[in-house]
Amino acid sequence: MMKYFNIVFCILICLSLCTSFSLPAAAQHHSPDTEAHTLEAVTVTAEKLEEYVRNHPRRVTILERKEIQERHFMDIGEAIDTMPGVDVRQSGTGMGTRISIRGSAGSGSVLVLINGRPMNTSQYGSVDLSTIPIDIVKSVTVFKPPVPVWLGPGASAGAISIITHELEETQTEKKKKHAIQLKINGGSYGNASIAGSYVIPRSEGTVMLTAGGGHRDGKRENSDKDTGNFSFHWDKKTENQSQYDLNGRYYHSEHGSAGPTDNPTPDARQQYDKGSLDFRFKGFIGETGDFSLKTYTDAVRLEDTSQSGATSTLDVFKIGIKGDSVWAKDDTHALRVGGILERDAVDHTLSGDHHREKLSLHTQFDRDISNITGTFGLRGDYTNDFGWFPAFSSGMSYAPGKNSLLKANVGYSVKVPSFSQLYQPAHGSMDQVGGNPDLTEENIWSYDIGIEHKFGKNSVFEASLFRTDNKNLIAYDRDKDMIYRPRNIYKAYRQGAELSLKYQGWENVSTDISYILQKTENRETDKELTYAPRHKFKLTLKYSLPDADTKIEAIFRAVSRHYGSLDNSNTQKLDAYHSADLKIIQPFTYKALSSEAFVHFQNLFDNDFEVHHGYPDDGFRVMCGFVLNF
């Protein structure tokens, strides 16, 4: 199987490269009339994206570049954490990010994509968002389950799509100039960081370089962390509107792994290095179609020293290719066809050598008929160690009025256990987490029905009912040796309601409210699922002082009690809590330089709580700094 996979992989790589170079050449032979039609199709395709978000049945939320800049997020994790129905917390083990969509932290997996390709590897069930500098992010899109099939496998609990900065605005003559940004900040518990970006405009594209580094001591013993990162971006747009871009990222971290308070590991340490390289080509097929082709690779190395002094190393190498084509005609229907081919190779001291080949093919058809939009998609997923599995998603939206939209969705997918779950995870010390080679695949059905109503220029209300049924749910539980290991739960479900309101009653004041009410059940024991609070509430208030241009943002969160163990024991009960954060941003001019000063207050009232059992919040802390734009 390995031999044939490599042959097929090489053939597809060659075909993709041939396509990349032949299509631009073919486009150059178009007649002037044909070229005009092609440019018209480009406009239709761009408008189609906005239509997809506005009228499509899927539950989609977007955070644009303008808002990212105005709200001055410290990192991409903080930006995603402010979106309605989404919670992001750094893993207490030092690596990885815990992402919850609609309160799904204890069940299902969230797929994270960057420029359309998956960041999650077979080894990592989670993803470290710290490897993505906030300076390169153009937009963030959250898909709530059931997600469309073309995003790919591994999105049973939702998906997050991160698009990096294409810097198209630098193509105008007015803005065609070099730009440098420098960000410096420091704060509580030895937090200090510096980051910079440099934009180099070119006649047919742009080059962008970013670099940064940081240090924190942390509140608990052995919770210190040192980080460094570097990235580059290059893009080129041709006369026929085809586009190439190349992105590279490197991230380094050295940190302690403190462990939970009931099983501390004050001497456990980890060193993590990750490098990524992506190439993407976007072009057009005839007069109504467009396509994108991506090739990518990741290289990861982790050195883990346990509390006992034992050491292990993990090396992960991933290479993949992903393609998507979309045909849209008359702005009434669209057909999407694509697939992904990927290989992961893992060499781990504790679990040995493993590899996984993955092939996924999908097609989706969207149809607009008057005030009704329907979609239906199919996908086939294959891995060499688990075989073939089907997936599908379908949805419909109906607009009873100009400002209202009814939506309904259903989807089915299969989650194959990651290497992290089967063998030994890399996101935590070997003293805390282990694997289970006897896991089987998880089957997921997802349902969603709701309404969206817009009122005013920038105000919208959304309400939805959702349900997820899992067979052989993969969930972690703690054994007698104090080590967490995954196992399959025969049947489980999660259902509830989500309400969100974005309201701007005045020009300088806006309010975002989200509330989730849910019920979960492990049908083997009639107990609740882990990390699934019944109530979650988030309130964001944003205010701008009209005369001073000062921006003030406050976020209030409230979470009901929940459990960190499948048996719902009181020893791993997480009490209800509430917290508040405050952010103040003041623009100013320094020697003709456009600048900003900022101060962030986290856990403003110094409340005691845990978002993960055994890892208490650091309490009240402050971060302040400034940004200079040259």
From TrEMBL:
Keywords annotated in UniProt: Cell outer membrane, Membrane, Receptor, Signal, TonB box, Transmembrane, Transmembrane beta strand, Transport
InterPro entries in alphabetical order: Beta-barrel_TonB (IPR000531), Beta-barrel_TonB_sf (IPR036942), Plug_dom (IPR012910), Plug_dom_sf (IPR037066), TonB-dep_rcpt-like (IPR039426)
Signal peptide: 1-25
Chief location: membrane
UniProt GO MF annotations: siderophore uptake transmembrane transporter activity
Membrane topology recorded in Swiss-Prot or TrEMBL: Multi-pass membrane protein
GO cellular component: cell outer membrane
Residue ranges, compositional bias (Basic and acidic residues): 214-234
Location relative to the cell: Cell outer membrane
GO terms (BP aspect): siderophore transmembrane transport
Chain ranges of the TonB-dependent receptor plug domain: 54-159
The TonB-dependent receptor-like beta-barrel domain, residue ranges: 217-590
Region annotated Disordered, chain positions: 211-234, 249-272
Family: Belongs to the TonB-dependent receptor family.
Database matches in PANTHER family: HEMOGLOBIN AND HEMOGLOBIN-HAPTOGLOBIN-BINDING PROTEIN 1-RELATED, TONB-DEPENDENT OUTER MEMBRANE RECEPTOR
UniProt protein name: TonB-dependent receptor
Organism, as annotated: Desulfonema magnum
